[in-house]
Amino acid sequence: MRVIAGIYKNRPLEFKKTKQIRPTKQIVKKSFFDTICPIINGAVFVDLFAGNGFIGIEAVSRGAKKVFFVDKDDTFIKKNLQNLNISNDKFEIYQMDVFNFLNLNVVENADIVYMDAPYSLKIDDLVVFLLKKLKKDAIVCVESNKVVENERVFKIKKFGNSILNYLR
User: Fold this and answer.
1) Could you tell me the domains of the chain?
2) Where is coiled-coil annotated (predicted)?
């Protein structure tokens, strides 16, 4: 796996693939960043269920002002950030459960939130809770294996068994 674009373009990323960690496919990642390209520069970005950190690192590479990585296991997030020598002022890592993180009120200033929860996790209530916390014009993208049932969905992109659900 590599960074697709930006200042870290083509730099390699280390990863661990397990039942719990499923790296986002390059085509899915590219589609997501093509969609948010007009607003990523200078944005506050939150990577929920960050896994290996690929999405948040891509956001930093493409000009996000600050990225918040949230995952119970931050081993590969830290490893990749160190390998790329990304400045500490560009990110914060929260090694904790996403539900606990959302209660910290950090997410309220986010411009973009990417959520790639384990496909087995029921996320509908989490999505509703998250949307209540965000400012009005924030964009949420939920990577899932199903369409998110919510009236705030404005775009859906399918890639095999991966679906990107965009909400505002």
Assistant:
1) 2-167 (3.40.50.150)
2) none
